[in-house]
Amino acid sequence: MLSASLLRQLTYSTTRFAVYEELKDTFTTTNSSPSFPTLVAMASTSGFLGGIAGNPADVLNVRMQHDAALPTHNRRNYRHAVDGLIRMTREEGWRTLFRGVLPNSMRALLVTASQLASYDGFKRLILSRTPLEDNLATHFSASFMAGFVATTICSPVDVIKTRIMSAKESEGLAMLLRRIYRVEGVNWMFRGWVPSFVRLGPHTIATFLFLEQHKKVYRHLKGVKEEGHAV
User: Fold this and answer.
1) What are phi and psi of 132, to 5 degrees?
2) pLDDT tens, position by position, 89-120
3) Do 34 and 42 touch, CB atoms closer than 8 A?
4) pLDDT in tens, 165-214
5) What is the mean pLDDT of the chain?
6) Could you tell me the CA-to-CA distances from 176 to 44, 81, 188 in Å, in that order?
7) How far apart are CA 224 and CA 220, in angstroms?
8) Structural element, H or E, at residue 226
């Protein structure tokens, strides 16, 4: 299960952060920075591409997490990530690697837009409206709020993604939504919000604290001044 999680981060997270930072640098000049709607569009694009790149590892990760809950005769017993990808392709066809790719990519779009764009938006707001400077306190505050926003926006998509990827048989999205609504009502949209925030909140905070320090070191090595640099 650890190998699947690592593979997911290598594909999904690397792609979305790389594309977002590249787009942001491309549209940032010495006199202006991208507007918040532009940041949302950039983050949405990078998130969607990251979702596609990370989908095979995401399917594998969900299956390995749910394997222990299945009856013994229904368990897949993947040994590691590579074994799982090979067996999924050989036993079920390559299309299985992209099962749920649309809701997964939409979820990646939403979480990236709500994380990256909202983080930059909150950071700009804090720097312009409060006495705080571009330091650890600002990074922590902005990332905490971004984690709250990301959890709330992505909760419904997380429920759908998990149920599609853990299913033994393929089921249409519309049919799945009708069945869930009929059984659980509208409460299904925020089922598991608290554990999601417990997971995504600290993850978002740690990600941006590390990213900001990484940027600081990179700018220092490249000789880029911190003052006036776009967030």
Assistant:
1) -65, 145
2) 888 888 888 888 887 888 889 889 999 999 99
3) yes
4) 666 666 677 777 787 778 777 777 778 888 889 988 999 999 999 999 98
5) 84
6) 25, 28, 12
7) 6
8) none
Which residue is listed with tokens 């952060």?
17
The percentage of residues in the chain with a pLDDT greater than 90, rounded to a whole number, is: 34
- 168 Cβ contact partners less than 8 Å away, ≥ 6 residues apart: 74
**Number of CB atoms found within 10 A of residue 193's CB:** 17
Tokens 């909140």 — which residue? 201
SS3 label, residue 65: helix
Query: What does residue 191 show for φ and ψ, rounded to 5 degrees?
Result: -65, 125
Q: What is the CA radius of gyration of the chain?
A: 19
By residue count, the chain amounts to 231
CB 92 within 8 A of CB 84: no
CB atoms within 10 A of CB 211: 16
Summary count for the chain: helices (H), strands (E): 9, 0
Asked if residue 60 lies in contact with residue 7, where contact means CB atoms within 8 angstroms, the answer is yes
Residue entry with tokens 């749910």: 66
Distance CA 127, CA 137 (A): 11
Both structure tokens of 162:
């998990």
Distance (Å, whole) CA 141 – CA 175: 40
